[in-house]
Amino acid sequence: MSAYSPFASGFGRRPTHAIGSCVNPYKRQKTIYTLNGDDFLRQQITAVSRDLKDGIYADFRIVVENREIPVHRIILKSASDKFETMFEIDMKEKREGKVYITERSFDAVKAMVDYIYGNEVSNAKEVCSELLEMAEEYNIPKLKNDCENYIKGRINHCNVYEVLSHAYKYNANELMDAALKYICDYRKELITKEKCSQLDSDLKDQLLEYIANHL
Questions:
Q1: Taking the domains of the chain in order of start, what are their residue ranges?
Q2: Which of 2, 114, 124, 136 lies at a 20 to 30 A Cα distance from 39?
């Protein structure tokens, strides 16, 4: 009788991997872990975001109504190409580390900064129209779109002509369409010679054309 060989049949056949390999075919392979910094990065972003919102390590100042708002160039640069140009070209603001904004209210500028930093704009009702203007001036499309949507939901008989003029002046097309539609829907009550006479001639023509096309 021949000697028993564990490789003679079935379960005990010789493994086919190359001689010298360290793999043991009879043991379950262990999970191979890799070093990945994703979780650590998320933790760091959370910590940095908290510091940024608190004004820590600010390297720039916005001065409005003799009050300073501490900010970070990298945040403003990523939000607005106007700020990006200011920081990349050798302008006075870049050298002095501050910019003076003279034609805006402190509350509106602070609201814009809060928005850029991801904070809630708590005084939106009071500053939204001014925010819309700054969103156009500083080319912040998301802020502009949000302002348009905010104002659209608050159009009424008392403010619709003001909203229409504001939207026309600052190229807020969605808001302008909403105001035109509102006036058209309530044209019997809202269209008067007095109110139309207060509109820019081009805007008045657009209003009349819109109504004619939607009768």
A1: 39-121, 155-215
A2: 114
Cβ(152)–Cβ(174) under 8 Å? Answer: yes
Calculate the CA dihedral of residues 132, 174, 75, 96 and round it to 10 degrees: -40
Q: Tell me: the pLDDT tens digits for 30-76?
A: 666 667 677 777 777 677 777 777 777 889 999 999 999 999 999 99
Report the alpha-carbon distance of residue 87 to residue 62 in Å, rounded.
13
Q: How far apart are the first and last CA of the chain?
A: 106
Domain 39-121, CATH homologous superfamily name and number = Potassium Channel Kv1.1; Chain A (3.30.710.10)
Question: Which residues, listed in sequence order, are joined to residue 62 by a DSSP beta bridge?
Answer: 69, 99
From the list 165, 215, 161, the residue with the least C-alpha distance to 190 is 161
Q: Please identify which residue in the block is written with the tokens 């890799």.
A: 34
**Structure tokens of 85?**
């140009």
